[in-house]
Specification:
about 350 residues; alpha/beta; 8-stranded mixed β-sheet; 6-stranded parallel β-sheet; 11 helices; about 35% helix; globular
Length: about 350
């Protein structure tokens, strides 16, 4: 197996965890990092050792000739950076959200397809260990045919302290947490045929919405609700854990605090625990998220080596972004939306 060399664009909050995650993957090596803030790139290079530091992304790609580029920047910069890599014939792994708008994301997908290079999306929520376990329970048929589900990500974590940029975004929680939860909904329950959404801004000092409720009618007949909030105080807050209740014709499966899944059927209740893998580099406050970086990256590398193996491709992620855009349109217009009918133009 030949080694894959890659470069990183971006040296913000998440980059050090992403590079630590890459350190768990065999057969890949980071050779360079570029950031608009050179000091951050230098700190990252020193932390991980042996990384060349660049002020210009094109220069880095030209000199290092990587097999792929890992873009770890804000969504607004993704289209230009993806185009730059594609025009250089370099595969792209890009953070979510793929872009700030559905149209921009579609153009990114088109640009990579035209250049003949893969575009993969770092969407790690579905790679959380309890989410994978829940998917296995649903697929096993133990709770029968799913008719309703609730995915809840609600807490009062001071997210704006770590990432102050989020407070200035006119589109906030649906664009930030929404892609994660809506992708998880697709992963667990399939594609949505209708969507209705309501949003609220509870924190008065922020620009965008910090609460959203999305109700979807899925193609398989289930009704799925996604609740997301950074303005909710709960008795059992477990940021950044996601709670899920799945109701089926033979029973239910409930993912609750501390990665506990209770499967209830006519035979009784069976309790399972699916905690995240431990890594010494992971922030305990983000443990379940940081640990999911590793299997996500492994899947993306598998997709680069064997086309078709990656789950979160650019084309697939467009389906998730259609749900995000449908949610915003529904909230603005006060009506249900068929996300399949949304144009990416």
């Amino acid at each position: 197996m030949s080694e894959l060399r890659f470069v990183v664009i971006g040296a913000g909050f998440w980059s050090r965890f992403q590079l630590a995650g890459w350190g768990e993957i065999e057969g890949v090596r980071c050779v360079g990092v570029q950031s608009r803030t050179r000091g951050k790139a230098e700190a990252l290079a020193e932390r991980f050792g042996g990384l060349a530091v660049y002020d210009d992304a094109q220069q880095m790609i030209d000199r290092e000739k990587p097999d792929f580029v890992d873009i770890i920047t804000d969504g607004a910069s993704h289209p230009a950076l993806t185009a730059l890599a594609a025009e250089s014939g370099v595969a792209v792994i890009c953070q979510k959200p793929l872009a700030d708008t559905l149209a921009e994301a579609a153009r990114m997908v088109d640009a990579c397809e035209a250049a003949g290079v893969p575009l993969l999306v770092h969407e790690n929520w579905r790679w959380q260990s309890p989410q994978r376990a829940l998917k296995g329970i649903i697929a096993s048929g133990r709770i029968g045919e799913v008719f309703r589900a609730r995915i809840q990500y609600s807490n009062s974590f001071p997210v704006f302290e770590n990432q102050p940029l989020l407070a200035r975004l006119p589109r906030f929680i649906l664009n930030d947490v929404g892609p994660h939860l809506l992708d998880a909904a697709r992963f667990l329950f399939g594609e949505a045929e209708s969507l209705y959404c309501q949003t609220r801004r509870v924190h008065p000092e922020i620009a965008g919405e910090d609460v959203a409720t999305v109700v979807m009618g899925m193609g398989g007949g289930a009704t799925v609700t996604c609740e997301m909030s950074y303005a909710t105080r709960l008795r059992e807050e477990r940021f950044p854990q996601t709670f899920v209740l799945v109701e089926g014709s033979l029973g239910s499966a409930e993912l609750g605090p501390d990665y506990r899944i209770d499967v209830t059927t006519a035979d009784g209740v069976r309790t399972e625990h699916h905690p995240p893998a431990k890594h010494d580099w992971a922030d305990p406050a983000y443990e379940v998220v940081h640990s999911s970086i590793v299997p996500c990256l492994q899947n993306l590398v598998d997709g680069l080596r064997q086309p078709g193996r990656a789950e979160t491709t650019g084309q697939d992620n467009l389906k998730t972004l259609r749900l995000v855009e449908a949610a915003y349109q529904s909230a603005e217009r006060g009506v249900a939306i068929d996300p399949r009918q949304l144009s990416a133009d």
